[in-house]
Amino acid sequence: MSGDLSEHRKEIDRIDDEILRLLNVRSKSVIEIGRLKKQQDADANLHTPAREAAIIERLVAQNTGPFPSEGIRPVYREIMSASLSLEGPQKVAYLGPRATFTHMACMQKFGSSAQYIPVHSIKEVFSEVERGRANFGVVPIENTTEGVVNHTLDMFIDSNLLIYGEVLQEVSHHLLSKSGVPEEIKKISSHPHAIAQCRNWLETHMPHVPVSEVASTARAAELCLEDASVAAIASQLAAELYGLKVIKSRIEDNLNNFTRFLVLSQKAPERTGKDKTSLMLSIKDKVGALYDLLRPFASHGLSMTKIESRPSRRKAWEYIFFVDIEGHIEEDRVKKAVEDITGRCLFMKVLGSYPAHS
Ligand SMILES: C=C(O[C@@H]1C=C(C(=O)O)C=C[C@H]1O)C(=O)O
Known about the structure:
This protein is an alpha/beta fold. It has twelve helices and 15 strands. The protein folds into four domains: 84 residues, Chorismate mutase (Chorismate Mutase Domain, subunit A, Up-down Bundle); 91 residues, D-Maltodextrin-Binding Protein, domain 2 (3-Layer(aba) Sandwich), CATH 3.40.190.10; 72 residues, D-Maltodextrin-Binding Protein, domain 2; 81 residues, ACT domain (Alpha-Beta Plaits, 2-Layer Sandwich), CATH 3.30.70.
C-alpha cells in the first residue's frame, strides 16, 4: 500500500512538472498577445473578459471529470490573472475597505494577481479610472434586498466612463474568530449592515453575547486578531486575508442575497454574442412620453431587463432613466432602437455594451 502511495505521488510530481512547464509556455503566448494588442493600440486594455469567459466555458463543456467542473473557473481565473500580471499590473480601484463584498467581486473578476486600490467613495472609484490611475473600477449597482445604489447611477450623469462588465456576487456572512471556538466568544463586532442582516441568527444562537458596531467588517476582523474573545461577522475573504477561523458559516437571515457590481473603464470591451447594453436618457415632460420612449424596444424585439429613474439634478421634476437591454450596440436591432429613441429624448447616452454575467 505504502509502495502504491509513493508511486502515485511520484506520478503526481511528474504531472505537476508538466503542468508547470505548460503554464510557462502558455504565459509566453499571453505576453506575445499583449505585445500585439499594444502594437494596435498603445493604451489597450489587456484584460479581455469575453475571451476569458469563452476559455472557461469551452473547458467546462468538454470536461469529463473526475476533476470537478466547478474547480475549472477558480483555477483558470488565477492562471489568467497571474499571467496577465507579467505584462504589468492590472490596476483595479474599488469601493473599499478590504475584504468587503466589492473586494470579493473584484477577485472573482480579476483574480489575486491584479493590483487593487481600495478607495473611500464611489466618486473616487470613478475618478481613479478617469485619471488613468486605475485601468478598471468596480462599484456596486444593485442588491437583491436593498435595491439600486443611487450614488452609482448619479455618477454616470457627469462621467464619460464606460461599463466594461458586470459581476454578480453572493452576499454571505460568517462568524469568525482567532481560534474558531464558540465558547471563547464574549463579544461580537461588525458593520451595522452585516449585523442587521444576521439579526435573527444572533438572537437565536448568541442571545447573551453583546454586539458592537464598527466602521467596517474589515475593522471587525482586525479586532479579532487583537483579542481572541471577539468574533467578527465578515466575509469568507476576510477569514482568508486575516487568517481567522470560521465558527459558523452563512449566518445571514436571507440566504438569497446577491449584489450586482459594474466594472468601469475608459475603453469598451470586445463583443461576445451574449451582451447587454446600458443606456441613460431623459424625456420631454408630456403625457405618454415614457410609453413612447419604450415602444421602440418592443418593436425591435429587444427585451428590457431593467429601468430606473433618478431626478436629473439639473432641472426640477426632470428625470433621467437608466435602461438595460439585451444585445450589443453594434447589432442592427439595437442600433435601430437606439436611433428611434434618440429622436424621442431630450438627451441620450450609451453607457456601454458589455458581456452579461454568466
Ligand atoms: C491572452 C489574452 O489576453 C488576456 C489573457 C488571457 C489568457 O490568459 O488566456 C485571456 C484574455 C485576456 O484577458 C487574449 O486576449 O487572448
